[in-house]
Amino acid sequence: MRVLFVCTANICRSPMAAALFAKSAHGHQASDAYSASAGFLEGGRPVHESVRKLLDERGIDVTRKKSQKLSADIVDHADVILTMTSEHARGVVSRFPRSISDVYTLRHFGSVVAPRSRAQTTRQWLDQTNAANRRAYLGDDVLLDIPDPIGHDFKVFSGLATELENSIGWIMDCAYPAHARTS
User: Fold this and answer.
1) pLDDT tens digits for the chain (183 residues)?
2) How far apart are CA 130 and CA 107, in angstroms?
3) How do strand 80-83 and strand 103-105 relate by DSSP bridges?
4) Dihedrals phi, psi of 38, to nearest 5 degrees
5) What is the DSSP code (8-state) at residue 12?
6) For the segment 136-150, what is each residue's pLDDT rounded down to a tens digit?
């Protein structure tokens, strides 16, 4: 499963989510789980200092990570695209219309996924989830949005990290349940 996380500048929420996903994939023994991140602004910027500190506390080094702008190539390589807000989701779909069945806000995706059955492959599980997707991001729903922490204190960034860890943990538990893990 190749997951693309998207936010505005790709310096806070999406790189943190991608890094936490990669760590969770390792913990779930999910050798086919990959993550990437991108944003709508020009790339080349380092990860925000608060994000770097929080990830460093979790044993994740992002000192070399630079932001990247969303492109067709990045979108085309994703099995699922998880955005931080409804506006981001609409932005991805408006720029890359063929991605419509793969785009969710992270909160929405976390609310619609269910544990994968023993008989399902990860692709079948994603297809089943996509079939049930009601495109909740088409309207504005602040409950589906993960707010941008830029301009806030470290406590807000810390809360973001906790939310992302919990959401990604649930998604990984569903996509890679214990019965599907290698020993």
Assistant:
1) 999 999 999 999 999 999 999 999 999 999 999 999 999 999 999 999 999 999 999 999 999 999 999 999 999 999 999 999 999 999 999 999 999 889 999 999 998 899 999 899 999 999 988 887 766 566 667 788 999 999 999 999 999 999 999 999 999 999 999 876 654
2) 15
3) parallel
4) -155, 170
5) S
6) 566 667 788 999 999
Q: Which domain holds residue 93?
A: 2-180
Q: Specify which residues 2 forms β-bridges with.
A: 34
Count the domains in the chain.
1
Q: How far is CA 171 from the centre of its chain?
A: 10
Distances (CA, A) of 9 to 40, 86, 98, 107: 6, 15, 23, 19
| Nearest C-alpha neighbor of 177 from the set 169, 137, 93 | 169
Which of 74, 88, 80 has the alpha carbon at shortest distance from 146?
88
Structure tokens at 168: 């990604």
Q: What is the tens place of the pLDDT at every residue in 66-80?
A: 999 999 999 999 999
Cα atoms in the 13 Å half-sphere on the side-chain side of 45: 17
* Dihedral pair phi/psi, residue 55, rounded to 5°: -70, -35
Location of structure tokens 């939310």: 163
CATH code for the domain of 39: 3.40.50.2300
pTM for the structure as a whole: 0.94
